[in-house]
Structure formats: C-alpha cells, structure tokens
Amino acid sequence: MTRVLSLLLLLGQVPALAAESPAPPAFDKQGRTLGPPLSERVTDYEIDARLDPSTHALTGQETVTWRNRSAEPQATLWFHLYWNAFKNDRSTFYRDSKAMGGIRNEDANSPSYPERKKDEWGYSNVKALRVKGGADLLPTLRFEHPDDDNAEDQTVFTVTLPEPVPPGGQVTLELEWEARVPKVILRAGRTDSGFYLMGQWFPKLGVLEVPPEGGATSPRWNCHQYHAASEFYADFGTYDVRLTVPQAMKVGATGVLVDRRENPDGTQTLRYHQDDVHDFAWTASERFEVLEDVFRSPGLPEVGLTVLVDRNHLRSGPQLMASAKASIEHFGRWWSPWPYSHLTVVAPPTDGTPAGGMEYPTFITAVGRAEPGEPKDFIIWQTVAHEFGHNYWQGLLASNEFEEPWLDEGINSYGTYKLCLAEDVRANPADFLPSPLRGWVGPLFAQDWDERDRMRGMSGLRENSPIIQASWQYRSRGDYFRNAYSRPQLTLFALEQLVGEETMARIMRTYVERWKFRHPRGEDFFAVVNEVSGQDLGWFFDTFFRGTGALDYAVGPIECEERAGKKGLFDDGKGGVLLVEREPRDAAKDEPVKRCEVQVSRLGDIRIPVDVRVTFADGSSLVERWNGQERWKRLSFERTGKDAGLKQVELHGVNALDIQPANNSQTKDLSGHVAVSLFGWTTYVSQMLSTAASLFL
C-alpha cells in the first residue's frame, strides 16, 4: 500500500526486450494461462457472492481445492477470516491500532476510539463448511490466535479433517458464509455515497510452508492474524468468481470479465476469471465513470486497461490512464514484462479515501481529484506507480508482508522513486490548493521538487527498530512506515550508489525473473545482490537492514592560510645526510603556498567507508577514501598557485542513509548547512502537503 500520504533513470541503460513486435501473451482473453501453469497453483477458488446494498450484506458460497505440497500428511487446515478484524474493539486489529496511535486516517488517541455506529462494524461468519460430498467440518472450527494472547480475536480459524490429506494429495471443501460490509476502513468497506471495495472479503486458506521455505525445518502453517500494520501472504492458484449486484452498479475486479447476465430481480451476475494469482478483490458503485484503453508497446505484451473513477473526479481519468501505461512500460522493461492481460485502476470517491492506495493482483486503487495538477498530478502519478509496482513485489513474487513488509513496500517505494524520476513527476504544493487560490496565490507556493529532492528529506533520527521485523512488532505507526517504506527505499538507493546503477538494474531483473511465483524471503534478495554484484555485502545487510544504529558523518569548517617558504634544515630527500638550509620564499619570485585543512567526523554509531571529494578554487578535484572507523580525521592540502585554496569538501558513498545530510558538505566562506537545512525543511513541507492531499482530496 502506498504512503504517498512518500541521474537519469535506468531506462536508458537497460536494453529493450524486443524490437518492434509485441511479446507473446502469457494469458488469453479469458484470464487463462497459455501453456503450462506459471505457478504451483496450491489453491483454487470458485466463489459465488451476492451483495445487497440496502443492508450492506454479503453472502457467498465457496468451493476451494487445496493441494498438500509437503512430505507429511495434513489433517488440520488454517483459514483467514479477515473481516472479523472490524467486528469489535477487542480484535487484534483494533488492539494494535490503539497501541500504535491509529491507522491511516483514524486517530486512536481518543479514549472512546474506535467510534462506530452499530451498522458500521463488519464481520464474516462461516455458516457451513464440509468436505465436498463428505463430512461436516463446522463442529471442528476453532478460532486461533498464533501471534498474541488475544482469545477474542476471530480472524484466524482451523478445521480438522476426518482423514489427513496425504503428501501430494488434495482436498476440496465447500463453504457458505455471510458477512456485513464495514464502513470503509483501510483496505475494504463501503461509503455513504454507495462505493464498495471488497478486499480480503472471503474465507481464505493460509500458507503451508515446506522446508526450506522461510527457514522451516518441517511443514508449518503460516497464517497470521489481521494486524493494524500488516498486509497479506497467500498461495497462488486459480480464481473463478461470480458476483451478483444491482444492475445499476458498475463493477471492476481481479482478472478478466468473461460473462455478464441480467437477472429478472433487477440484479446482474458478472463472472471473472484469472489463473496464477494469489488473491481476488473487487469494487462496485453506481457513480463510476468507466474509461477503457489498451496498452501497446513494442516488445511488451498487450494489456487491456479499465479505469473506474468517481464522477466527481472524472478530470483525473486521463492521468490515471496515462500513469498506468507509463508504469507498465517502465517496470516491464526494467524488471520483467508484466504477464497479465488486464489491469483495473479504481479511483474511489472522496468519502472512500481510506480505500485508495491499495494493491491486489491485476487490480489497484489509486486517488482521484476534482482538479488534478497539470500536466502530471503528483498524487495521481505516484499512487498509480506505487500500487501497480506492487503487482511485481506482492503480485508476481508474493512475498510475506506479515513478516517482511520491507520486501514489498520498501522495494516498491524504491521502484516508485525511479519511475517518478523517469517520468519527471514533480511535487508542487500549489497544485494542492483549491482552484481559485491556485491561480491567485499559487505562484507564492510554487516549487519544483522531484523524487530526489523528496528523498533527501526522508532521513530520520536513530532508528527504533530494524528494517527486518514482523509488521506488528513495530512500536508506532511512524516506526512501521519508516522501516517498511522510506528507510528501505533510501537503503536500496544507497545500495545502488555502492554497486552502481547498471549493476543494480541487473540485480532487480535477476531477482524478479528468478523468484516470480515463488514467495522469496529477504535472504533470497540478499543472495541475488551478492551474486550479481560479485561482492560479499553481508556487512551492508547487517548494518542497514538488521541494525538500528545511526549513520552520521560530517564535514567541519574549511581553514586555509597562505604559508611562508620552508624554514630550517632539510636533507636531500633521498636518505642522504646533506643538510640544506631553506630560506623563506621570495614573494616576488615564488608562487604563493596555500595550506588548507578540513576535519571530517563520524558522529553516529555506524561505521562505513566514506569518499571525501575535495574541490579546489581552480576547479580541479580529488577524492580521498576514509575508512570511517575513527571518530574524526583531519585532511590537509598544500598547493601553490593563485587558485590553490579549497573551495568545497563533500562526503560521498552511502550518504542517502545519513540522518543529517545537511552536514555532509562544506563550502569555503559559505557554509552549506543553512542552505541544505532550509532545503530539508521545504522537502518536509512537500511531503506533508502530499500526505494531506492523499487523505482529504
């Protein structure tokens, strides 16, 4: 999920994937794979669901087939029942939210939090569960709480089979459930304007991990509760879903619409299908305007595009479409061609803002605005780029966001930054002003910040937590967001600085191609980095992904003085004993001697090699490598000539992670601290305005 609320690019360095003809598709127009399956297809779902907007009731029937990948019989199956997170204030979701200070647009500091009317709570209730053609399993249903001691949480349950599923065998279950759609919250729900976003809406199997996945030494179920600061993890499979809603509603969903029929009772039934995905989401509203187009680019597969935008935000439609095309283009060439044949982009209404900025396979929610900035609205472009980017790290690779949120959110934030640079998407606070003010006072606020500028303002204080940590173990919202989003983005940018852009591009492509459809872990990413770079970068991963220390190197004031000639006795410079007396220089005949000194310091705990770039007044420069181990080092330079003095000293290396970038440079007679500090402040303001816009527009 995006936190917009957050160099030439690689395109010129990455060769095109083909010449003029489009790449062959991986899926047909029915969402079915052409050729062998792309994934293991551990779970297959057939779902028939009906929405009644008058009561916000959702009822469904589900047939799910599960295959036992392990070498051991399995008698117990684990399921998610996500919407019970919104059932009452005793759920783990709300306990987490209170402890972390709230979620997204909800502030948990009020003693009465959460404040919801009776019909605004949501839930999901399993009414029937049986082996297909066999035993009733409902009496065996037990709610579990594997992550905490909260016996009142009902987001995970188990059932026990009458006969274990043998290794390599499969079982088919039939479920019936009823649910009430909650008032929109975080990733799902409904609004007063009649908008519905159905995310994590059906009983869903957990993941049986088999050795050596995730460090498992024996088969184990990975099925975490729904936490306030977590997302999801699931097996790949096939989804065939029928949705029945009022005929006036316009619907978008994961996969491809393969059939639609109108029913005598004034409803319509739409059938969607998609192979080789790990989730299914959908949306419905009478207020949607529908835009359709096709992405075509030489060397990349064609992708059908549907944009569903609230009628009040219709002017955002062209930019939603353009940013989706740009994302498919760039990410397809940098990382791997996106294989699916269709993408749906949803821009919720204003009262559905909490549902914006979310990703599901082939289906994303973004942000629409009544008066988007031109020519490229920062909020729209960055949100679409970010959510579509998830269709790689969470869609194709399906990493475990419960346990390693950075592996999706952090890598994706890095990709978002790269795309926004490639497309020259800039944040201008004037674009966030209402139309009359935009024209009258907008020029007073006009700035031109690109992603590099914004990234410079992301540095924070000493980290409270490491990047590699389970999502629900962070102490606050800020701690989670920083370590799942901005800090990994900066760390990956620092890695790019360390290995070079071309090598980093090969790292990302290798990682995607090797691990798509396979659920990689952080260690798998690190192994690819070491392999492609040809270096053992374990120190980098230990320091910046597993560690919590602060990186802070600084340049002190530059001091220069004109020196007199040498005085005293000197030998011949060859070890001889001849002593020669040197006289002070003759100012009329000799070049002036300029001696300059500067001190570089390590103020933080983290120790890394640092390149010190020294620029002289005559324009020449040199770079000295400092191992960065000591607390400080004094550098001195003695040169002759009129322009021999030092002009500027800058620190290079992994400075993207420095918590005080303002002290990374020094200019003779003009400290860089004030200018950079002011720049950091304006960058902060830029991010603040971006967040406000994403929440309220």
Notes on the protein architecture:
The chain has 697 residues and is an alpha+beta fold. The protein folds into two domains: 10-425 and 457-544, Neutral Protease Domain 2 (Neutral Protease, domain 2); 553-696. It has twelve helices and 34 strands. Strands 6-9-2-1-15-18-17 form a seven-stranded mixed β-sheet, with no helix packed on it. α2 links the parallel β21 (300-310) and β22 (342-347). α3 crosses α4 (406-422), α4 (406-422) packs across α8 and α8 (477-499) crosses α9 (501-515). It is elongated, with a radius of gyration of 29 Å. It starts with 42 loop residues before the first strand and ends with a helix. Residues 2-19 and 671-697 have low confidence and may be disordered.
Span between termini:
18 Å
Number of strands: 34
User: What is the level-2 CATH architecture name of the largest domain?
Assistant: Orthogonal Bundle
| Tally of domains | 2
Structural class: alpha+beta
Major sheet attributes: 7 strands, mixed
Number of helices: 12
Output mean pLDDT.
Answer: 87
Spatial arrangement of strands, main beta sheet: 6-9-2-1-15-18-17
CATH topology heading of the largest domain: Neutral Protease, domain 2
Strand residue content: 25-35%
| Uncertain residue ranges | 2-19, 671-697
Percent range for helical residues? 10-25%
> Shape from CA axes?
elongated
CATH superfamily of the largest domain: Neutral Protease Domain 2
CATH class of the largest domain: Mainly Alpha
Radius of gyration, in Å, reads 29 Å
